[in-house]
Amino acid sequence: MSRHHFIPDWRKVIAYLRDPKSDWKPKVALMLALLYLLWPIDLFPDIAPLLGWLDDLGFGALAVGYLISKSSKT
Question: pTM (2 decimals)?
């Protein structure tokens, strides 16, 4: 049984982003997720205690899930 770690190996992420053979859609999803997490304007402001954090978490989880599903097929 393999364990999933939540801390990415950044060298592998950068190598994946630089690989010209990999599909462009997961790369765009990853970049959009990072941009959304770093962007100061959210769908729900972080002033709303729980809702403001959940939209960041949900969007990041969707992007990571998509990236994992696409990378496991290769």
Answer: 0.57
